[in-house]
């Protein structure tokens, strides 16, 4: 079974963005894994619990078909994280699917992979994306090549479905 990696903050990830997107991917037949700053219990902003399987430093991008950065206020810990950048850049270099929801597209912009690409993000971060050379779109979900971005939790199911569509084209 092909594997998909979710990157979640150790605290205050957005529950619905993880759990709804994860459900869509599992329904499409993908095995889901979680990485964070600790290989331990991660807590969502709404009390949800996710078990991290590994720390970012131990991620082997060759093992995964996609990486998904989950939003929520806790995801700011990855805004300047070199390990998060390395994962995004490596997946991009391999032509694999990269996705981010809510404020998490900032991680992709900071990693340099949204330059001259179309993407969306929570409205609060739109100027930041534009400042990094991204073509901001206020749509709920945007697909540009192998990159999927979503504005927030209201878009989680569609976000998961778009990721599944991209992955199915690779098979």
User: SSE order in H/E notation?
Assistant: EEHEEEEEHEHEHEEEH
Q: What is the second-level CATH architecture?
A: 3-Layer(aba) Sandwich
What share of the residues lie within helices? 25-40%
Could you name the CATH class? Alpha Beta
Structural class: alpha/beta
Mean pLDDT: 96
* CATH topology label: Rossmann fold
Beta content comes to 25-35%
Number of strands: 12
Q: What composes the largest sheet?
A: 7 strands, mixed
Stretches where pLDDT falls below 50 for ≥5 residues?
Answer: none
Can you tell me the number of structural domains?
1
Could you give me the name of the CATH homologous superfamily? Class I glutamine amidotransferase (GATase) domain
CA-based shape? globular
Beginning-to-end CA distance, first to last residue: 12 Å
Rg on CA atoms, Å: 14 Å
Kindly report the oligomeric state of this protein. single chain
User: Which strand order do you get reading across the main beta sheet?
Assistant: 6-3-1-7-8-12-11
Quick structural overview:
The protein is an alpha/beta fold and 171 residues long.
Report on this model:
- There is one protein chain.
- The protein is an alpha/beta fold and 171 residues long.
- It has one domain: Class I glutamine amidotransferase (GATase) domain (Rossmann fold, 3-Layer(aba) Sandwich).
- Helix content is 30%, strand content 26%.
- The protein is built from five helices and twelve strands.
- Strands 6-3-1-7-8-12-11 form a seven-stranded mixed β-sheet, with helices on both faces. A three-stranded mixed β-sheet has the order 2-4-5.
- A hairpin with a 4-residue loop joins strand 4 and strand 5.
- The protein is globular.
- The N and C termini lie close together (12 Å).
């Amino acid at each position: 079974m092909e594997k998909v990696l979710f990157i979640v903050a150790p605290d205050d990830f957005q529950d619905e963005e993880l759990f709804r997107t994860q459900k869509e991917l599992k329904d499409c037949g993908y095995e889901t894994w979680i990485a964070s700053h600790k290989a331990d219990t991660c807590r969502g902003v709404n009390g949800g619990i996710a078990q991290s399987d590994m720390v970012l430093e131990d991620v082997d991008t060759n093992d995964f078909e996609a990486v998904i950065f989950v939003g929520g206020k806790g995801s700011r810990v990855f805004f300047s994280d070199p390990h998060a950048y390395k994962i995004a850049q490596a997946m991009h270099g391999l032509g694999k699917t990269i996705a981010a929801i809510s404020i998490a597209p900032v991680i992709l912009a900071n990693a340099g992979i949204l330059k001259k690409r179309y993407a969306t993000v929570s409205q609060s971060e739109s100027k930041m994306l534009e400042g990094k050379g991204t073509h901001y779109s206020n749509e709920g979900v945007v697909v540009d090549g192998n990159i999927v971005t979503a504005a927030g939790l209201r878009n989680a199911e569609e976000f998961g479905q778009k990721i599944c569509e991209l992955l199915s084209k690779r098979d």
